[in-house]
Design brief:
Elements (H helix, E strand, L loop, with lengths): L7 H10 L19 H18 L3 H9 L6 H13 L2 E5 L6 H11 L4 E5 L7 H4 E6 L4 E6 L6 E5 L6 H13 L1 E4 L2 E4 L5 E6 L12 H4 L2 E6 L5 H11 L14 H13 L4 H12 L5 H4 L6 E3 L3 H17 L7 H12 L4 E2 L1 H5 L4 H11 L4
Parallel strand pairs: 1-8, 1-9, 2-5, 5-8
Antiparallel strand pairs: 3-4, 6-7, 10-11
Amino acid sequence: MTYNSVSATEEQKFDNLKYRPSLGSAPPTAAAPIPSHAVASAISHAVRDAVQQHSTWVRPLRQEMAQVIVGQESLIERLLVGLLANGHILLEGVPGLAKTLCLKTLASCVALRFKRLQFTPDMLPADIVGTMIFNPQDGKFRTKHGPIFSNLILADEINRAPAKVQSALLEAMQEQQVTIGDETYPLPNPFLVLATQNPLEHEGTYPLPEAQVDRFMMKIVINYPTRVEERAILEAMATTEPSLGVRSIVSREQILNARQVVNTIYVDDKIKDYIVDLVLATRPPTAASLNLNGYIQNGASPRATINLTLAARATAFLNGRHYVTPHDVKSIALDVLRHRVTVSYESEAANVTSEDIIRKILDTLPVP
């Protein structure tokens, strides 16, 4: 059996998993006619027109951010992917690589409510989600919402907060709601957590729980700029008053409309099978067939399959296409999978990272 094809038995198993309404939920109706080629073509043209119509803000937003951020085109594109796919993003890089500046610039270009949280070891969950405050005048408690009730949350140095604070973010990141006392409050839509962490300094830091790491759609590793980019940074920032102001380019309605269009972007069945094969290659027994079984301790969860598909659709949208190509999947796979594949002790001893494993999977599996 090849990676991008399935047997008749597996097709039957997949068909049995499909949702079917109960017998009493609705009266039986006649089967819908299969759309003709003309109808399918009309739908394709409609999606293509919608992509062109609702992506007009992409180029101006990139140009506006480029006035402050030198280089880092890949980082800017990943941030836009997270914004379109409703996925939280974790940035990792040494100090001074403009992680915080890039996230603040994105927030300034988007007409959304933005809050920055500087995580520290003495932070409490109430500092993020809010708390109940007693009012002595009427003898009742009232709810005071925390800064998490915003659209964009910059969690700066997120790994400096203890586990109790990290757990307070789990419900917000997954369910987009917060429970304070006996009440549950929905968070505004859109809601996005943009977090940063320093990979070098470990004193006074706490490793992020695996459950929280998996809730980040992408983990982006920022590298040093090139010599040309470093020279441009010197010209722009070597002053006591650097120009960091940007205009608001995108509105809330434009983002929500673009997300609806992203959901309609076409993904071929072969590409869907390819995405599933990539994720399954991180788990046994498929990992064993690629000689990776001894290097992987834990593979990627089904959340990786979902996020990889959404990120590929958002990438196609940013490139002005109404369909996903295999290159869209391969270009975003490393950022989606690197934090979801846990390497074994043998891998650490051999100096093999999760990125090395993912690159081997991408190079080995046949591309549709």
